[in-house]
Design goal:
This protein is α/β, with parallel strands linked by helices. It has a domain of about 110 residues: Beta Polymerase, domain 2. Helix content is about 15%, strand content about 25%.
Length: about 180
């Protein structure tokens, strides 16, 4: 078994138990790594399986899951920062759900600092605000996004507050 270990998350070429055949079929044309599912080492990982796709396959793989596997609801879309992991510091994450079966799949892709990833706004309008938030908080750009501007922080704000190396007190412009 070819396994890639990153912190406590393990990825494998083997499809976890309980993944619907239509999901496996939709991802057949992509080089993916699986995590979670029944028998996962951590309790939160056994409930929903995850799949790691290459950055360049992000949009095509998610399109295939939506159109071919019935994962039509974008439940969540965000990122996670692993500053010590190089070169791909960030993991962009979305959770997709099949409304008929209630099956969920966590889809992830790794992005290096300064790289961008394809926007999901062409598939779901709801991705608009989620991607703007991810851009604002982490500095990850989304190719093809219709309005990639800051949503919480001022346009001239220096830095990205959700990065783990961001100072806890922020960047102070003045002091008493």
């Amino acid at each position: 078994m070819d396994t890639l270990k990153t912190s406590s998350m393990r990825y494998s070429d083997e499809v976890p138990e309980g993944v619907a055949p239509e999901i496996v079929s939709a991802l057949a044309g992509f080089a993916v790594q699986w995590s979670g599912g029944a028998g996962a080492p951590h309790p939160h990982q056994d409930r929903y399986p995850g799949v790691l796709v290459k950055r360049e396959d992000w949009l095509p793989a998610i399109s295939a899951l939506r159109d071919g596997a019935g994962l039509i609801w974008l439940v969540d879309h965000t990122a996670v920062d692993y500053p010590a992991r190089r070169p791909a510091r960030f993991t962009v994450v979305c959770i997709l759900m099949n409304m008929a079966t209630q099956a969920r799949l966590i889809v992830k892709s790794r992005v290096a600092e300064g790289e961008s990833i394809a926007s999901l706004t062409g598939l779901w309008h709801a991705a608009n605000w989620a991607e703007r938030e991810t851009f604002d908080m982490f500095g990850i750009a989304f190719e093809g996004h219709p309005d990639l501007t800051r949503i919480f922080m001022p346009e001239d704000y220096d830095g990205f507050p959700m990065r783990r190396d961001f100072p806890l007190q922020g960047h102070l412009r003045f002091q008493d």
